[in-house]
Design brief:
This protein is mainly alpha-helical. The protein has one domain: Growth Hormone, Chain: A. Helix content is 83%, strand content 0%. The chain has 17 helices and no strands.
């Protein structure tokens, strides 16, 4: 693969991973307008976000076995067509109940991009390069929050909130064309893999029992769910409590997205000197300290809007380091079941993200505490699981080495 082909493939894989973030971030500035148009509340509109995250979580479990059985492209086409049709359905809705349903279907279709992109990374690049490729994908992923809310804010004001979903449908159509003409096929179909429920569950169980996968999927899933608390809570905190406009919210969201871009590139440099495990530990320790200070300061009334934005900037900087390294460590043990592993990992991340989003909505109290408190709990919990999981992995590795040495002596 030439450098030009390498760049184009990573760019297409990056756009696949941005489908869901765009679907989430672009309509956030439209929350007040959607609530007013559909004669409902912000809290009810937040449930459409929760429904989207649930759809991603469930959908990824469906696509994992399909991607392993039928190859990468056929399930990819099917999912993206469903997403495109559901996006048009969102644009035509006249009730919050229909919007929630369409968002669920939109998520089930669009989440194929997340699973397929991660499986294709495992297919197309050597294991030693996976963490670096994930860092580049995270760079593309981090740019989307800079663009999506800004576009969504201006589209809401100029064309109405319905136009947001038509824009998403148009973007997906362009991605489908790029996949057909440019993207390599990756792993071919494997007819030996059964899609019967028992076989599928067995495949997932094989993946889930691997201690390295389990540890880093839990760590990555819980720690990287912190931004979902921010995404769910920030429209209310900044537009209702601090009274900033839709356009200002879009620019604020874009500014905070910058905090995730630089660390993704720093990861390239750090990986030359440190292991992924060391980077994750240092990052979660840093985020835990920042999170505690952010919660305490919010409770004590130290922060106005600009102070809270500064703290969020410092906190979110860690997301660009934890995510890629946790993903690489989760997927590296697998080849044949890479699709199932990617699906299981992504499903847990989005499922926990949905839970986090719902928690912020349930504990809504007209302050920023539910948002920042949930963010802090995510990273502290991730750090605790990381420390525990590392001990288990090292113990099992030491035990396996000891048993192997005994068998050699016996021979």
């Amino acid at each position: 693969m030439t450098r030009r082909q390498h760049f184009i493939v990573i760019l297409i894989l990056g756009t696949l991973t941005t489908i869901s973030p765009f679907s989430i971030d672009m309509y956030l500035p439209g929350f007040p307008a959607i609530a007013k148009s559909l004669n409902t509340t912000i809290e009810q509109v937040q449930l459409s976000l929760t429904a989207y995250l649930i759809g991603i979580s469930v959908g990824q479990l469906l696509y994992g076995p399909l991607l392993d059985r039928y190859g990468r492209k056929r399930p990819l086409y099917a999912g993206l067509v469903l997403y495109l049709l559901a996006s048009i359905g969102c644009a035509q809705t006249t009730s919050i109940e229909t919007l929630i349903l369409m968002r669920l279907l939109q998520a089930v279709g669009g989440c194929v991009g997340l699973v397929a992109a991660q499986a294709l990374v495992r297919d197309l690049f050597p294991v030693s390069k996976i963490a670096q490729v994930f860092s580049l994908l995270t760079l593309v992923l981090a740019i989307s929050p800079m663009i999506a809310p800004t576009v969504g804010g201006y589209a809401t004001v100029a064309l109405g909130w319905h136009s947001i979903f038509l824009i998403l449908a148009g973007i997906t159509a362009l991605i489908l064309v790029a996949i057909y003409f440019v993207l390599p096929d990756g792993k071919q179909a494997d007819p030996s893999l059964s899609l019967r429920p028992k076989a599928v569950l067995s495949s997932f169980l094989t993946v889930a029992k691997h201690p390295q996968f389990l540890t880093y999927t839990l760590v990555g899933g819980i720690a990287t769910s912190a931004p979902f608390a921010y995404i769910s809570g920030s429209p209310d905190v900044f537009m209702n409590i601090y009274r900033i406009s839709e356009q200002q919210y879009g620019w604020m969201f874009a500014f905070l997205a910058i905090s995730m871009i630089a660390p993704t590139q720093l990861n390239h440099i750090l990986l030359k000197r440190f292991r992924s495990e060391q980077i994750i530990y240092a990052t979660l320790t840093y985020q835990s300290m920042v999170g505690l200070l952010m919660v305490w300061g919010t409770w004590a009334g130290w922060f106005g809007p600009y102070g809270l934005i500064a703290m969020l900037f410092l906190f979110l900087a860690g997301q660009g380091l934890t995510g890629p390294n946790a993903s690489a460590l989760s997927l590296s043990p697998f080849s044949r079941h890479a699709g199932s592993a990617a699906a299981l990992m992504g499903s847990f991340r989005m499922g926990f993200g949905a839970l986090v989003s719902a928690v912020v909505s349930v504990f809504h109290n007209h302050t920023a505490i539910p948002m920042v408190g949930t963010m802090m709990i995510c990273v502290v919990s991730g750090l605790a699981i990381f420390v525990t999981g590392q001990r288990v992995i090292h113990y099992r590795a030491k035990k396996a080495g000891f048993e192997e040495s005994l068998s050699e002596v016996a021979l």
